What does this fold into?
Amino acid sequence: MTFPESAKSLLRLAAGQRGYSRLASNYVWGKTLLNYLLFRLPGLRLIWRMRAWPHTLYLEATNVCNARCVFCAYPHMTRPKQSMSLELFHGAVDQYCAMGGGDVDVTSIVGDPFIDALLFERLDYLAAQPRVRRFSFFTNAIAMKPDWSQRLLSYGGRLSVYISFGGFDRDTYRRIFGVDKFEAATANIRALVEAKRRASNAPRIQ
It folds into this structure.
């Protein structure tokens, strides 16, 4: 466990889960407000010798998806379907790290990360950057092969995987996601959860 993680654990123990959540929320919103003021009032940066910093770097690595969700604009998208080159991806991450780094999210605005053939190369690159504290993405898990679970687990606690899932049965799922992939998505999610249960330092799954 790293020092920041151990410090968080001690704070959570001292303040309790509810108190810790409140402190964490106040910290995030306080940092957001300060960042806004630093952007809007350059004089503050001169007085405090501080600079504005980005909260999180969001990169749409691909805009291709394997579902047609009723809550998403993807079925109506007119942009060309494509993926970001590794050169552009590396350049954006390098510039972000030069600014101080922080969190990186590779969730597509419309699309699914597992459709991206370069996803693991991107995650490997993020994992190799000391200034990238955490990285994450949202997925519908349809293309998240069970064989990839161990590879995802290899990133440890720095990775967070957020899974978008709706419906308690095949018919409801099909109406919400626009595809008949209830069984596939369920099996892929179960495989990842079971792999996480067996691991000691595993990614966050939500």
